[in-house]
Backbone:
């Protein structure tokens, strides 16, 4: 499978359309869940890039008041995850159902259930492409 990573509003929608229309690929946009979408060949995404970003406080040192400090790395990371999921909106190209079937209703708007689901997925996905399989 192919993963093309861009930034928000960098033209990922158009790239996905071009790969579909011009090359006949089954490419998704911000969607890698092949069990219910035609994305057999891959996806174009800004959010999937989080898999290749180091986790703050865990995979990289964090500077606090100008000093490198990795103490409490897990707390720093979890704080970043919470902030990300609190600020995300569905129209930003990420929704937890892109990654798996969850316990929240698709008829329900973005609320506490989806934020909790977001945190669970982001904790699992953030930096996973950098870690060795054991």
Residues:
């Amino acid at each position: 499978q192919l993963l093309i990573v861009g930034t928000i509003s960098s033209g990922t929608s158009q790239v996905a359309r071009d790969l579909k229309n011009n090359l006949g690929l089954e490419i998704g946009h911000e969607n890698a869940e092949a069990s219910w979408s035609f994305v057999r060949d891959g996806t174009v995404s800004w959010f999937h890039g989080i898999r290749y970003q180091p986790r703050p406080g865990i995979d990289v040192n964090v500077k606090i008041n100008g000093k490198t400090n990795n103490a409490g790395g897990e707390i720093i990371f979890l704080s970043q995850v919470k902030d990300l999921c609190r600020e995300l909106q569905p129209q930003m190209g990420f929704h937890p159902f892109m990654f798996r079937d969850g316990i929240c209703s698709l008829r329900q708007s973005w609320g506490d259930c989806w934020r909790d689901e977001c945190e669970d997925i982001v904790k699992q996905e953030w930096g996973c492409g950098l870690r060795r399989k054991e």
Observations:
- The beta strands are 2-5, 27-29, 42-45, 62-64, 67-69.
